[in-house]
Specification:
The complex is a heterodimer of chains A (125) and B (170). Chain A is built from two helices and seven strands; from the N terminus they run H-E-E-E-E-E-H-E-E. Chain A has 125 residues and is an alpha+beta fold. Chain A has a domain at 32-116: N-utilization substance G protein NusG, insert domain (mini-chromosome maintenance (MCM) complex, domain 2, Sandwich). The mean pLDDT of chain A is 89. Chain B has helices spanning 3-21, 26-29, 40-50, 53-72, 75-95, 104-127, 136-163. Classes of the chains: A alpha+beta (125), B mainly alpha (170). Chain A binds chain B through residues 1, 3-13, 16-17, 19-21, 23-24, 27, 40, 42-43, 85-86, 88-89, 91-93, 99-101, 103-106, 108, 110, 112, and chain B through 27-28, 31-34, 73, 75, 79, 94, 97, 99-103, 105-107, 109-110, 113, 123, 126-129, 131-137, 140-141, 143-144, 152, 155-156.
Chain lengths: 125, 170
């Protein structure tokens, strides 16, 4: 079948791709020395975890209408299990790079990894 | 056919499409909250291009409310209304250039992108956290694909509708 595209259609596509690229650039964070996972629920920070410094497996439980558990292991973090209806959060799987997020929308929980550049070569004591 | 009857039929059709869509687990392929085909938008576009703007708004808003009551949960109402509002505004604006500047493809893609943006705005307000906008690129790009799909379906629907039995409203 023929789509009979008009020139405005290409402008729409171009605009959408341009906005997408702008968001990629503004949310991009290069690899950094330290990675901090910030777990927050409805605007309240539940926990801040320095992913590189945790060697043992670690769990965070959150509560509310749809409670769940977040797992941290080997410098990575994920939703281990959740009582939410869509399970998008669990399906997201492990995240470990600065700028990445994992979200459970029904529970209002978001995990965000932030990179921290220390810019310190030698510490003199 | 009475306008009220036609609009009621279109609302139930949109509800069926929204329900069927729940069995197409797009979020298993792209694990991002709120990702979907947007099949119910076919009904919105039909109303917008074959009926009038008030019908399109009524059908879309009532579809969102009923879908949330029936199977989405009330928390999803805010997301879907926000997405529907953004999508309707963009599609109504782009409609002014319909057949001159834009085809249904561009209008549908613009609507899909606007819908996803509206949902992210709602989510960031609900969670009091702007980090969710990290999903913007993937939602915009999938919107191009789903917008194209719903545009192709709508084009064929319009063709059949215009050729055969144009509804005569009393």
């Amino acid at each position: 079948m023929r789509l009979n595209l008009k020139y405005g259609d290409f402008l729409v596509i171009l605009a959408i791709i341009l906005i997408a690229v702008l968001f990629v650039v503004s949310f991009y964070e290069g690899n950094t020395d330290e990675k901090i996972a910030i777990v927050s629920q409805n605007g309240i920070v539940l926990d801040r975890i320095e992913l590189n410094k945790i060697s043992d497996r670690y769990e965070i439980n959150y509560f509310g209408e749809y409670p769940g558990t977040i797992e941290i292991n080997n410098g990575r973090i994920r939703f281990l299990h959740a009582d939410c209806p869509d399970q998008v959060c669990v399906n997201t799987g492990w995240i470990d790079r600065p700028g990445q997020i994992a979200v459970c929308l029904p529970a209002g929980v978001i995990i965000k990894i932030e990179g921290v550049q220390t810019d310190v070569d030698i510490i003199v004591r | 056919m009475k306008k009220l009857t036609l609009n009621s039929l279109l609302i139930s059709l949109a509800l069926v499409l929204a329900f069927v869509e729940r069995f197409i687990p797009l979020n298993l392929i792209v694990p991002v909250p709120g990702i979907k085909l947007g099949l119910a938008n076919i009904v919105t576009m039909f109303a917008l291009f074959q009926l009038d703007i008030p019908s399109a708004i009524t059908i879309t808003v009532l579809r969102c409310v009923l879908a949330s009551l029936l199977f989405g949960g009330m928390s999803s109402l805010f997301y879907s209304l926000s997405g529907a509002f953004f999508a309707l505004v963009i599609m109504i604006l782009l409609k002014f250039g319909y057949e001159k500047v834009f085809s249904l493809v561009g209008i549908s893609m613009g609507g899909a992108a606007a819908h996803n943006t509206g949902q992210l705005v709602a989510a960031s307000l609900m969670m009091k956290n702007t980090a969710i906008f990290a999903y913007m690129p993937v939602l915009l790009v999938t919107g191009l694909a789903t917008g194209l799909l719903t545009a192709i379906i709508s084009m064929n629907l319009f063709k059949v509708f215009e050729k055969n039995n144009r509804v005569k409203l009393e």
